[in-house]
Amino acid sequence: MNFDYSEEQQLLADSVRRFLQNKYQFEDRKKIISGAGWSEEVWAQFAEMGLTALPVSPDYGGFGGGAVDLMSVMEAFGEALVVEPLLPTLVAARLVGRAGTSTQKKALLPAVADGRLRMAFAESPKANVVGAPAAHKLIVLAEENLFIVDAAEVPMQPYRTIDNMLAARIDFSPSKADLLAKGAGAAVEEALDFATALVCAEAVGAMKFACDTTLEYLKTRKQFGVPIGTFQALQHRIVDMFISHEQAKSMACLACSRVDSSANPDERARAVSAAKIRIADAARHVSQEAVQLHGGMGMSEELKVSHSFRRLTVLARQFGDADHHLQRFASL
Amino acid sequence: MDLNYSPEELAFRDEVRAWLTKNLPAELKDKGHYSKEELLRWHRILAKKGWVAPAWPKEWGGTGWNVVQRYIFEEELGYAGGPMLIPFGLTMCAPVLLRFGTEAQKKRFLPRIYNGDDFWCQGYSEPGSGSDLASLKTKAVRNGERYVVNGQKIWTTLAHYADWIFCLVRTDPTVEKRQEGISFLLIDMKAPGITVRPLILMDGAHEVNEVFFDDVEVPAENLVHDEGKGWTVAKYLLGYERMNTGRIGESKRQLARLKEFASHQIRTNSRFRDRLSRLEIELIALEITNLRFLDRMRRTGQPPGADVSMLKIKGTEIQQGLTELAMECIDPLAGDEKSLALQKKYLTTRKTTIYAGSNEIQRNIIAKMTLGL
């Protein structure tokens, strides 16, 4: 047993963090979301760092990495509240890799690996799909079957989600699409567990930001002539936020590790659902407390903490909320 | 990152588990309260095997296991369902003696602790000094080669079984910094002037006591570390203690028993089922958090940081949650033995978030030491 990142994982995490610190400060992000909603330049940098290639099989120009390899990347994304749609592309690519024919894999995966092709995944023909407006191809689940379609062929209305992610409402008809796989239930469940584990890691990063920035605020904000962090009522609340974050991080480790190593789908599903339940609870707790402890400033559009609140609110529910996963956890 | 135990660690776990299965007497399993004889019986079985004090240095009987092996052992011990090893001698007094004691003190006390010859208790809390421990008033006045002790301790767990008590006492009431007037004394419970009075808690059990000291004479050789250094000793002990407060193995056993006991509720009451799931997940998370702390200790070689206080907070919350759910499976008006035992378990488990530094004190520690508030 060990909780170390390997040397490669650590190097990658360091380079992603360095990049985000230099080029993806809150002000940079503001410019992106007030413009196109995502940055092609940032995307190119991600591809340059190997993030798009990381989970793609070496047979198709990738590195064959797993969820654990992506965990620290997703944590860093969560801290910086990255809006570029990496996860939608990786989830769709995973479906192609697991369910597609070798011709389809050859056509798509090398382009994903080198960053030329963006994709998104729709869990039903009529759905709200994150990343769809920036995607070239969509993978759509219709009943138990997966289809692949040019994004340009799908009627869609782009918009921003509450947490400033680029999304679109799609209305899709399988008649215009290529079949990716029939009866792909198991592949879809696996890909959704992969996505859920990564969303857990992303939420852990966003919680870390919320905890750190709130701690900073408690140390600097003065009322009654003293920093408000000297008040025990607030100290205990921020301690509980840090505990929630640690417990959430532990569960993200479990989920990512089981997605990579479980031969048994039930064991994997149980770990992922357990993680999502704990992380949904923690995301709600930490995000709400972060806003409360910031007082009025926590409500402000100007402060990153309100953006982390929105991101955590969505992440808590994306790929199934706590109730959904409680149902699944109990059924396994 | 690999969350699975290595084949060697698994083999070690299996060896421990098999031995415990074979050697833990059935009549010692899952009892609410244990007599002194029962506690010592289990202690001596483990001592004979050489497993009663794994963390001690090898020369004094330790096993030489690494932190992960020790964790596995602790967990299996808890999971086996036997009586808890009483910590006052093994994991409280002994580490203090090993760190601060004289050679004579080590030779005199450690083998007797190891073999279960002396039963120890802890004299910290006083009626006016609970969370504010440094305000303690029990005083020890040096008189030649003796200290004369007067005062009172309270909530002293198993003092009525104990042969010895380690105490924090005030040796200097004049120093400006009150922590510097405190010393660490070892006191023979048979010394004239000591009175033990039971305190019955709300489950009806006698576990804690008041201990009165009335002109009790203590040889000066029973002072540990220097006079006035008692607070240093107490803080060292606190750090040592905190790693083992999660009681994860024991909670796993309680969870497994609860799932069996509550099978009807789990099937028919989704609200109950979801609360149980959340508790189970909290326990899974706590175990991994605990392992992450151990892994950090192993990698950095550093002692545990103050943030391990969260293990106590979460571990005790889980223990309470489990007993609360178990109690909710029975008729609140029931009078049969099994129902009453579950209700009493709920009652007595409320103490866990209060003792060993209340959970509020643990939060103060994290706020101050880890978060710098």
Give descriptors for this structure.
heterodimer; A: 332 residues; alpha+beta; Butyryl-Coa Dehydrogenase, subunit A, domain 1; Butyryl-CoA Dehydrogenase, subunit A, domain 3; 2 domains; 4-stranded mixed sheet; 3-stranded antiparallel sheet; 11 helices; 9 strands; 58% helix; B: 373 residues; Butyryl-CoA Dehydrogenase, subunit A, domain 2; 3 domains; 4-stranded antiparallel sheet; 8 strands; 49% helix; 15% strand; globular
Can you tell me about this structure?
The complex is a heterodimer of chains A (332) and B (373). Chain A has 332 residues and is an alpha+beta fold. Chain A has 2 domains: 172 residues, Orthogonal Bundle (Butyryl-Coa Dehydrogenase, subunit A, domain 1); 147 residues, Butyryl-CoA Dehydrogenase, subunit A, domain 3 (Up-down Bundle), CATH 1.20.140.10. Chain A has 11 helices and 9 strands. Chain B is of the alpha+beta class and 373 residues long. Chain B has 3 domains: 79 residues, no CATH class; 110 residues, Butyryl-CoA Dehydrogenase, subunit A, domain 2 (Beta Barrel); 128 residues, Butyryl-CoA Dehydrogenase, subunit A, domain 3. In chain B, 49% of the residues lie in helices and 15% in strands. Chain B contains 12 helices and 8 strands. Chain B has a 4-stranded mixed beta sheet with strand order 1-4-5-8. Chain B has a 4-stranded antiparallel beta sheet with strand order 2-3-7-6, with no helix packed on it. In chain B, strand 2 and strand 3 form a beta hairpin. In chain B, helix 4 packs antiparallel against helix 5 and helix 4 packs across helix 6. The two termini of chain B are 32 Å apart. Chains A and B meet through helix 7, helix 8, helix 9 and helix 11 of A and helix 9, helix 10 and helix 12 of B.
Mean pLDDT of chain B: 94
CATH architecture of the largest domain in chain B, please?
Answer: Up-down Bundle
Annotated CATH homologous superfamily of the largest domain in chain B: Butyryl-CoA Dehydrogenase, subunit A, domain 3
Helix content of chain A: 55-70%
Largest sheet of chain B, in brief, is: 4 strands, mixed
Instruction: Give the oligomer, counting copies of the same chain as homo and different chains as hetero.
Output: heterodimer
CATH topology of the largest domain in chain A: the name is Butyryl-Coa Dehydrogenase, subunit A, domain 1
Taking pLDDT < 50 over at least 5 consecutive residues as the criterion, the unreliable ranges of chain B are none
